[in-house]
Automatic annotation (TrEMBL):
It comes from the Eukaryota. PANTHER family: CYTOCHROME B-C1 COMPLEX SUBUNIT 8, UBIQUINOL-CYTOCHROME C REDUCTASE COMPLEX UBIQUINONE-BINDING PROTEIN QP-C. InterPro entries: Cyt_bc1_su8 (IPR004205), Cyt_bc1_su8_sf (IPR036642). The chain crosses the membrane at residues 68-86. It is found in: Mitochondrion inner membrane. This is Cytochrome b-c1 complex subunit 8. Keywords: Electron transport, Membrane, Mitochondrion, Mitochondrion inner membrane, Respiratory chain, Transmembrane, Transmembrane helix, Transport. Component of the ubiquinol-cytochrome c oxidoreductase, a multisubunit transmembrane complex that is part of the mitochondrial electron transport chain which drives oxidative phosphorylation. The complex plays an important role in the uptake of multiple carbon sources present in different host niches. One of its GO terms (cellular component) is respiratory chain complex III. Its main location: mitochondrion.
Amino acid sequence: MRPTQMLRAGGEGPLGKYNKYLGGWGNFGGMKQRGIITYGLSANRQNPLAGTAHDAVFNTWRRFSRQVLYVAPPLVFFYYTMEWAIERNHYLNSKQGRAEFGDEE
């Protein structure tokens, strides 16, 4: 069994199963492209956090305002239901509650 050959970064050489290597990514032997201009900006000239605080405030408000009607009504309903249940439990376990409902168990 033959070990796997390494892929080379450039050049045309016989590699692979059919002794054909097409080159690097996108280099398939076509015509050279002309008129394509690329620009780059140095990493130490960029400001990656530009506008982060401003965008965070407004994005948070936008997301909150769209979701509040899905979350708030059930939250309020279940909060008041839980408060009622806690108060009812305290009453039923108090002297007055036991006197009123003690014989129903």
